[in-house]
Task: inverse folding
């Protein structure tokens, strides 16, 4: 049985996040999602050790985002991040951004990434020690 391995990263919406309409600019959500992914891996420093030893990097190759409702200045948001799928050549993270005060979904996203062999500058299979470290984190 898999246990919950979702990370929640808080972000407060600031004035500089807003567009001319007074709500968070769509491009800022990409930054919020990236903060959530960094938070996810910050909570799992052992993964960075495995990645470092393997000489690979996580590289996003696809991002699908659905905007559900507007976030505005002063909103406290929670970026929920989890590893949703682990394939042989790629993996997918699912993320949701919710307002903290009412739990309503502001946006959701799926990010597909590959492992890049930094020295060879090419994608490599998700296998070995890194696969063993990632597999227990998968939560559909």
Result:
């Amino acid at each position: 049985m898999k246990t919950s391995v979702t990370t929640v990263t808080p972000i407060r919406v600031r004035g500089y996040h807003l567009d001319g309409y007074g709500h968070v600019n769509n491009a800022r959500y990409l930054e919020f999602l990236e903060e959530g992914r960094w938070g996810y891996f910050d909570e799992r420093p052992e993964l960075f050790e495995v990645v470092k030893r393997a000489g690979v990097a996580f590289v996003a190759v696809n991002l699908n985002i659905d905007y559900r409702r507007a976030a505005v200045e002063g909103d406290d948001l929670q970026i929920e991040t989890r590893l949703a799928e682990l394939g042989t050549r790629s993996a997918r993270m699912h993320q949701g951004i919710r307002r903290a005060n009412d739990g309503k979904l502001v946006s959701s996203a799926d990010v597909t990434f590959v492992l890049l062999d930094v020295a060879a500058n090419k994608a490599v299979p998700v296998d070995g020690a890194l696969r063993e470290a990632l597999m227990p984190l998968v939560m559909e």
Q: What stands out?
A: DSSP finds three helices and six strands in the chain.
